[in-house]
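Q: Could you predict the 3D structure of Spermidine/putrescine import ATP-binding protein PotA?
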Amino acid sequence: MCYLTLENVIKTFNKTEVVKKLSLEIEQGELMSFLGPSGCGKTTTLNMIAGFLEVDGGKIEVDGKPVHLLPPNKREMGMVFQNYALFPHMTVFDNVAYGLKLRKVAKSELNKRVLEALEMVRLSGYEKRYPKELSGGQQQRVSLARALVIKPKVLLLDEPLSNLDAKLRQEMREEIVDIQKKVGITTIFVTHDQEEALAISDRIAVMYEGRIEQVDVPTAIYNHPKTDFVSQFIGEVNQIQGKVIENYGNNKCKLHFFGNEQIVSVNSTKNSEVDFFIRPEKIQISLDESFDGKAGLQTKVERKMFLGAKTRYILKAQDKHLVADISNAVLNPNQIQEGNNVFAIWNPEDLLPCRKVR
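A: Sure. Here are the predicted structure tokens for Spermidine/putrescine import ATP-binding protein PotA:
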């Protein structure tokens, strides 16, 4: 069921549209991530939803009711900021209770809800501490408890983990997902971290230059990108340019590239040039010309890098480079050395055609 709707939302700064007729539907209880590079409009969009920025066009609805003309305190939304935004002179208890006091919640109810919120974020017993006495992860938990204690309709998180170290980030993102699912609250999570978005999201809205490029579940965003930007922004890709030498119809063509030929899924005219992407982990390498019945592309290993669970091979073919990431459980890295001639092999369906039109 659609719960939060953005319809043709526009934001303009100095006569420049930074959010361009953005439309999106988010279901009740869904965790939606806004993912994109700096300056793509994701935080601006979040701030319009929260009411911290005015909408210059379009509308925002929650549960079928327009909220874009309401002040922030009337929208029933909880916000977790990147810098935590805790009051340094207040205890943990008072920081979490702040929103309830503004809403004039009775003292007995206030005490109960604050203690419940602190228990939810695993900070029971920290009520009398001050922010300066807490670690970064604990401060972020306080910020999350403060947002949830008011029982908002929508939870908004603006890059909430960017100030934490890598290990703590992973722990906190798992906690946020656990709490979000337990509470069942509709949530928008803004991040520029691809791994973070892929790991936690029900769906991802990939943004670029004020527009949404693609909205989909994480597996589809990664494996079936719909635009060139999504192909290149999510994960890593090799770009391959080939020439169509035969068109068989039914979305099948024979492609010539790097001195090799392969039938691929694309609809293009004969003699036209076509660009494809392929992810490094989709490429296999072998000392033999054929592998599992598939013909290989002759290449040379220019460099290899041991990366723990996998090894990265930089391959050269006709003055072009390919990157292959091979699991060390699949191929012993000692079998292939720099300077070796090897064959690169992949499934034709793993070639992603470019889609330049957005």
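Q: Anything worth pointing out?
A: The chain has a mean pLDDT of 91.
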